[in-house]
Specification:
The structure is a homodimer. By secondary structure, the first copy, chain A, is an alpha/beta fold. Chain A has three domains: 51 residues, 434 Repressor (Amino-terminal Domain) (Orthogonal Bundle); 140 residues, Rossmann fold (3-Layer(aba) Sandwich); 136 residues, Rossmann fold (3-Layer(aba) Sandwich). Helix content of chain A is 43%, strand content 15%. Chain A has twelve helices and twelve strands. Chain A has a six-stranded parallel β-sheet, with helices on both faces. In chain A, helix 1 crosses helix 2, helix 1 packs across helix 3 and helix 10 packs across helix 11. The first copy, chain A, is elongated and about 90 Å long. The N terminus and C terminus of chain A are likely disordered. The structure holds a DNA duplex.
DNA sequence: CTGTTAGCGCTTTCAC
DNA sequence: GTGAAAGCGCTAACAG
């Protein structure tokens, strides 16, 4: 048999239709300079044979692949899967195929993913770098001018534009909000303090605390539910038990919430809770959880825009390389619910 | 410049290394029949030039692309993104690239997705068919022998193996459980009753009700939160208000829960709630929500296994086409929590 | 062990 | 409007 899945080739179509292969090519590319009759006839043959162009052959001719890559830590994480969803939609609307790969925040799989995408000759990529100066990434950047945009976390000194939430500002706002409520012993609960986003949020928290002459207290021991429960138990039994907890990410907020529930700690009366990142049931649990929300849709959209701009540039014969060093910070916003002490008569749907 | 992203080609590597292109090819394919010195030398040049093989050229030579496709309704849905995560891991472990596309349960985008994947010449695909006899899909199946596996929903009369949860059995078990609790006016709340999974769950519910000589009552009006709230309001104010609600999917369960909370209906005292599909916070909300859980990991794994088996087959010169018509039903399991009337002292973490 | 060479399926001049 | 023909980067014989 001719080829592995019996898919007909362009020249087979040409032969059956009794035309030259160039004509078929013109037809599948929009039909410029093809007579209407030929067009119709060829289309019919294509239909009958079930012909689907071979992307590999097109790519080989040196043209763009109409494919972009998205590299995220995990596709199961709600934040990243929402980003992926948004980007997928934009890509499709622009006739691009999106290939998503996951890194688990692991520099090694990141390199693997990157290479897989380069082998595919994607036209560009959007990436959540595992590390601010990701070794594999930087090495790669030196030898290619692949259009690229970072999201969620910037890549330093790379000339790669990035779109991130204003994490520090968001965390600061959250902390200030807690302070306004009158809480004084606010602890910042977190894990993965090596990640850019987490560090920024810690900074924002610290800034607000210091500005209020309060003592910032960090507990960096969060890894999973168990460690969170332990951390909270220790905090509650410590000499200066906190009256509020600021959790730096989604999952941490949930773990903390569950632990507080388990220990029968009244929220917000005994301990208030404030989270970073909104999640579907934050408004449904009791008490509902106040959070800083990131504009996921906007992040995805702006990243896509930046990438498309680069794609344009590289098409226009390396003309103006466009201002690239920009790092766009998008605004977060505070969603007051019950866990911080705000009553929220309106927020419930 | 030679090619769009300045990526060197195999023959450039060969020239720089002072060897023939075949040698470079052998090196990047494992180095069979290449002297250690040549090997090392070529690898060094590859490294220096930052050479990455062009997948398109390889594909064009007619070999497998080492790429598989996954077509799901949405990548934001927790159930499907979990499946995607599992499959992604398995694919990577087997050196395959996974391309995920979304259909929004829309037959048209399904055809688009399918075509995009075929253009990429994926070696095979795993698909959640938008429709049991998806027109685009069936047409496509007639003219290709693309290795394929369906998950979540089977494709009828197609010879395509599928891996689905035993939805009917699960729903039946859930309903029986409610009946054992003594509930008698159990209504099945749902939307999208055209989907295979939903219909199966409705059937299971009906079967259990009829076996107990109870009257099955369906409310198919669920579309979004608003419609759910309305449905519940009507049910509560109806002549025979239900004493239990069986929700046929994740999102419906959540909406129902929120509406019941809003109306201050005591769960499970006044109305019990039981959902199909587990979700992260089902155990955290109060009352915690009892559900039927699907073995996501198993579904992903078995689908991958089935696909790999087909990939093997098609490599071994179309030998034994393997028994294909199978439809594997995996067991669901019941997670008793509070919303059905079970107290769950142990389940809370 | 290594180099030469003929395409894979397509796009794209360039004539007609 | 249309066809012939030259590659794109790579692999797989086939010689050496």
């Amino acid at each position: 048999m001719a080829n592995k899945s019996l898919l007909p080739t362009l020249s087979q179509v040409a032969r059956v239709a009794g035309v030259g292969s160039a004509t078929v090519s013109r037809v599948i590319n929009g039909g410029e300079r093809v007579s209407p009759e030929t067009m119709v006839h060829v289309l019919r043959v294509i239909q009958k044979l079930g012909y689907v162009p071979n992307q590999a052959a097109r790519t080989l001719k040196g043209h763009r692949t109409k494919t972009i890559g998205l590299v995220v830590p995990s596709t199961a994480d709600p934040f990243f899967s929402s980003c992926a969803e948004v980007i997928q939609q934009i890509a499709r609307a622009n006739g691009l195929l999106l290939i998503v790969t996951a890194t688990d925040n692991n520099a090694e799989s990141e390199v693997d993913s990157l290479n897989a995408l380069i082998r595919q000759r994607v036209d560009g990529m959007i990436i959540v770098p595992s590390n601010a100066r990701s070794p594999g990434l930087c090495g790669l950047l030196e030898r290619t001018n692949m259009p690229m945009v970072a999201i969620d976390r910037p890549i330093r000194n790379s000339g790669i534009p990035s779109v991130v939430a204003d994490n520090a500002k968001g965390a600061q706002t959250a902390t200030e909000h807690l302070i306004e409520h009158g809480y004084e012993r606010i602890v910042c609960l977190t894990g993965e303090s090596n990640l850019y986003t987490i560090r920024e949020r810690m900074n924002g928290y610290r800034k607000a605390m210091e500005a209020a002459n309060l003592n910032p207290v960090f507990d960096l021991s969060v890894k999973d539910y168990k460690s969170t429960e332990l951390a909270i138990k220790n905090l509650l039994h410590g000499s200066k038990a906190p009256d509020a907890i600021f959790a730096t990410k989604n999952q941490t907020t949930i773990y903390a919430f569950e632990a507080l529930l388990k220990f029968n700690v009244a929220m917000p009366r005994t301990v208030a809770l404030f989270g970073f990142d909104d999640f579907e049931l934050a408004s449904t649990v009791r008490p509902s959880i106040s959070v800083i929300a990131q504009p996921v849709e906007e992040i995805g959209r702006r990243a896509a825009e930046l990438l498309f701009a680069q794609l344009e540039d590289s098409r226009n014969e390396e003309s103006a390389p466009a201002p690239k060093n920009q790092i766009i910070k998008v605004k977060t916003h505070l969603i007051p619910r019950s866990s911080c002490g705000c009553s929220d008569p309106l927020s419930y749907r």
